[in-house]
Every structure is written in structure tokens, then in C-alpha cells.
Amino acid sequence: MRAAFDVVVVGAGPGGIAAATVAAEAGRHVCLVDNNAAPGGQIWRGFRAETAREHPHGRGFLQWTTRLKRTSCEIWTGWQAIDRPTPGVLRLERDGEGCDIGFDRLIVATGARERFLPFPGWTLPGVMGAGGLQALIKGGLDPRGKRVVAAGSGPLLLAVAAAIGSAGAKIEGIYEQASLARLAGFAVTLLGHPDKLVEGAGYRLKTLGAAYRTGAWVVRAEGSGRVEQVTVTDGRKQWTVACDWLACGFHLVPNLELPRLLGCRITGGYVQVDGQQQSSVESVACVGELTGIGGLDKALLEGQIAGWAAAGHEAEACVLAPQRQRLQQFAERLDRAFALRPALRNLAAPETLVCRCEDVPHAALEGHASWREAKLHTRCGMGPCQGRICGSAGEFLYGWENPGARPPVYPAPVSTLAAEAAAAEPAHRSS
Amino acid sequence: MSDGFFITVNGKPVRVTAATSVVAAVMKSNEPFGFSVHGEPRGPLCGMGICMECRATVNGVPHRQCCRMVCEPEMEVVTE
To answer: Which residue in the set A48, A126, A353 is minimally distant from B43, CB to CB?
Structure first.
């Protein structure tokens, strides 16, 4: 083992940063681990101190990163958590190098990814996630002059369309699969969350000029070698929109691989936690999107609660309970408002690939009773993404439950695994 | 930005800045990203380290996820 800490936090998005900051300020020896080149997670991706002020979320970023930097918290970027070889030890990997770190308390803040659903043409270059395209632009991709269609579902669509539009792309349309009736119900519940309402209105203003259609979705993408046009429907008629990029994601799903590996109880798609963010596994807390898709405010708050609790300050954590409840309810409302319509199950044609890594078509998967059965017969989910993309699609299309996670929970070079196993061996013998 | 430099993508020079992700640089180069196991052209999907569609050989090391790396001067990227 290379290092040991009182508290290890996995994931340096807002939830992880808040957790690490609070625990370190309370005097704990903390390590914040993230697999990206810099902290920030998705919402604060690519933010820098000099430019963050220009962004609506920039102030929070500056406040939290300034606080974090004042602490003694170690920040390990580029490290991916791949295994927990023994209780209290986390195995990490970076550039082919392995490292085991010990912890008394572990806080998992691995965030969420987009849900992707297969439709004809979704594997064409130029078809990306909505958050995916935004992440690429934050990484320096130039959207100027590109014609973009944003589609799928979730509050992220508007945010992304607004960001891409203000970066110089031409937004050709925004298509939200949820019906206006559902969203109207959601807008009413938003009144209890004024900050979010303002945020939503801001997005709408910026996207003026682009059509925001509810109850509409993409049925196929077409093009020679890359996407050139998409066909959209409202359930009655269909029409075609030319574009250079299709940004399409269906709301978010939590990154549950690490909680699953650790054995945390998961109910209804989210990690079950108590009022202190404690999971069903002793000394393991989960925060942010893992416990319900609720965005920035929820992640920051739950991170603070977990940070206080990990430092032994339960009373401080309890003070935040009423806010926590409000934000959890907000997450539940989001899920209801942006629930997927059953018609989306019919988008995939028999030859449409569901598993992109192994090129497994829809026709080969229909009729399999479980994820495991489909894997054994078709290699679905056995490619490099380890079922991260097709897993949530399979859940929605075929009702398959995720069978759990096995180490390594992220692809790692065999050399790393072999080196760590060899290093661990003498310890096993002596015990 | 004055802090620009060049990397190569399949031998083609691409001007980038220090904050540019490798995946963005490859997209800027217009070089094809890669092909599926059955030979279909593919490009990045998730942009955040999940889908593995943006893997490339970077400075001789295969299967690097370009979305998780930032450009460095004289980096050599070869798509797979």
C-alpha cells in the first residue's frame, strides 16, 4: 500500500469536492481521487480560475475550489478506482501504474452519465450525447458554424443547447421526448426551487430562435460515413432536419459500478443511503447523482453532509437535513417529469446495434431473459465499455437487471493487475 | 490565445492550446476516429470517459482514452 488516509473521496465533481473540503477543514487527512486530468466533474469541467466568472456556475466553482485549496487535502487526478482488494483498501490505476490506498471512511461521488437509447443511425460519427457534446466543447472542440440538433430528454437538453448556441453553433432544433403536460407539472413544482426556475428561464432566453419542441423525438439519423440529417417525430407526423451534429441523450443514469462493487444496496436505480449519506456498507457513503439525479445543489449539499459525517461531526450534518429532503424531492420530480415514453422502445430496428463495442444488433438480443444470458450468447456488454452504454439501454428495452460489478470496474492494463496481485501475495500468505 | 502549439494526428499537424483535450484535437483534424469490430466508422459518443469510442494510440501507447487527456507539445496521436 502506498498511502493511507482518514477519508478517501472518489470523484472530484461538486459532491466530491464539497465532501473532501468539509472533511479536511474538520482536520481529517483526506485524499480526493478523480480519473480526469483536472477536478471539476462534468458541470465544472474545463473551468479555470481566470475564466470561471463568465459562467453561471462559475461562482460556486471558485468558492469551493478556493476552500479546497486552503486545506491539506491531497488531490490525485488521472487515477481510476478499479477494485477494492480488501475492506478499507481501494485499488487505483493510472497510465498502466497501480496503487493501493487505505481509508477509514470512503465517500463515493462518481456522478452520472447520459442514458443512450439505440435508434437507426445512432452509431454514426457526429451523433453524440448532449452532455457529451458539451464536454467535448469544454475540452476545446470548436462548434462555430456547426448545425446542431439537440434531442432526447432531461433538463440538460436546454442547458446544453444554450451553451452550444452561445459558443457559436446554429441550433436547428431542440426535441424533448417528455410531453408538455408532464413538463408543465414539473414547472409548477419548480416554484419551490426559485434558483432553478431562474436558471431554466435563462436557458430559454438564450436559445431564442431555436424551436424547443416537447413530445418529440428522433427516430433515425442518416448520412454517408457521418450524420447529415435526422428524422424527428411527434408521434403523428415525421420531418427531417439537416445537421452536422446530433446531440442526443435521454436524461442521466448514475455511475453505479463502484458502489455495486463495494456491495452498496441499490433500490430503484439509486444507492440507498441514510440521512448522513451512509450506504448499506459500513464506512462507505455515497453522494450526489448516485442517490438520485438532482444536479449541482443536491451534490454540493450531500457532499457536505458526508464530509461532516466522515469527520465525526454528525450534528453539523443533521443541520442540513431539511435542505437535503427538499433536494431529494426535487430529484424524484425530475425523474417523473422526464420519464421515458414507451414508444422509445420501438426505435431500434432489428439490425440497429444495441451494443456498440461488440456490434450486437437488437434482433440478436430480443428474447433473452437476462443480461447474463444475452452476454453469454451474443457478447453484448463484453466490450471495452463493459456495458456502460448498452446496460441502461438493455434495462429500458428488455427489462434486464444489471447483474452487478466485478473487478476491475474500469478497463486496466493486465500489467497493472498482475503487478498489484504480486505485491499483495505475501500479505495474503502471512495472514 | 498565444499559448498555442502543434500536435500530430495520423501525422497531420493540428494547432491546439494547452487546455485542449486530445479528443477535441482529433475532431479538429478531421481524421477518422476509428472503426467498430465489424468495420463501421465511429466517433466519440459520451465525451466523458464512458463509451471508449475515442481510444487512440498516443505517443506510442495504444488504447488511450483521448477524452481524458489534454494535449502536450509534440504529442503524436494515431487513431485506431
So the answer is: A126
Residue segments in chain A with a per-residue pLDDT below the cut of 50: 191, 194, 197-198, 201, 205, 426-431
Domain positions in chain B are 4-79
Nearest to residue A217, comparing CAs of A183, A245, A179, A243?
A: A179
CA–CA separation, A299 and A301 (whole Å): 5
Residue B47 Cα to chain centre, angstroms: 12
- Which chain A residue shows the shortest CA-CA distance from B45? A128
Is residue B42 less than 8 Å (CB to CB) from chain A? yes
For residue range B37-77, what is the model confidence (pLDDT) as tens digits? 999 999 999 999 999 999 999 999 999 999 999 999 999 99
Q: What pTM did the predictor assign?
A: 0.93
Residue A426 is predicted with a pLDDT of 46
pLDDT of residue A429: 41
pLDDT value of residue A199: 55
Contact A389 B19 (CB under 8 A): no
**pLDDT score for A200:** 55
Single out the residue of A81, A63, A58 nearest to residue A11, CA to CA.
Answer: A81
| Claim to verify: residue A222 and residue A128 sit in the same structural domain | yes
CA A176 to chain centre: 19
- The pLDDT, as a whole number, for residue A1 is 64
- In angstroms, the separation between the Cα of residue B39 and the nearest Cα of chain A is 10
Interface test mutation site (partner B, options A10, A82, A114, A355, max chain B beta carbons within 10 A): A114
Query: Which residues does chain A have within 8 Å of residue B68's beta carbon, measured at their own beta carbons?
Result: 35-37, 78
B62 has a chain A CB within 8 A of its CB: no
Q: Tell me if ipTM is over 0.85.
A: yes
**Which among A126, A322, A338, A356 is positioned nearest to A242, based on CA atoms?**
A126
Q: What is the CATH number of the domain that holds A136?
A: 3.50.50.60
How many helices (H) and strands (E) are present in chain A, helices listed first? 14, 21
CATH of B4-79 given 3.40.50.300, 2.40.380.10, 3.10.20.740, 3.20.20.70: 3.10.20.740
Q: Is the peptide bond before A259 cis (omega within 30 degrees of 0)?
A: no
Range of A175's domain? 116-250
Tell me which residue of B1, B12, B6, B3 sits closest to B79, measured CA to CA.
B12
User: What pLDDT, on a 0 to 100 scale, did the predictor assign at position A206?
Assistant: 55
pLDDT of amino acid A189:
59
Q: What is the pLDDT of residue A192?
A: 52
Same domain, A261 and A145: no
